[in-house]
Specification:
114 residues; mainly beta; Jelly Rolls; eight-stranded antiparallel beta sheet; 61% strand
């Protein structure tokens, strides 16, 4: 499946907010932004969609357990424990767990404050 095909709906995902930092007082020009860290669990067969970008929301991901498949640029890359990837303004992707055990990642990104 590539970005030209339909992406399955999100299913089997649990997101736990671990911490946030208000960046306004920390870095000039960052008012209204926060640094956010989340623990994301993908059950076997889980999909994190839809196809989405990271414009104005850069981040990094680190895999703790299992394998997560990152679909982007017409290809699919598997990432296991100890690996991760950047998510910058050029990222357009969706994720899934094709494995038989839960996959767990730490996701850290900069977002607009709710």
């Amino acid at each position: 499946m590539n970005s030209q095909q339909a992406v399955p709906e999100t299913k089997g995902i649990t997101v736990k907010l671990l911490e946030t930092v208000d960046l306004g007082p920390e870095i000039e020009g960052m008012a209204g932004r926060q640094l956010r860290m989340r623990l994301v669990t993908f059950e076997p067969g889980a999909v994190f969609g839809p196809l989405h970008d990271h414009k104005d929301r850069p981040g990094i991901v680190y895999i703790l357990q299992g394998t997560i498949t990152d679909h982007r640029n017409g290809g699919a890359t598997d990432y296991g424990p100890g690996l991760g990837w950047p998510e910058d303004r050029n990222t357009l992707h969706w994720l899934e767990n094709r494995g038989t055990i839960p996959a767990v990642e730490i996701s850290v990104d900069i977002v607009r404050q709710p």
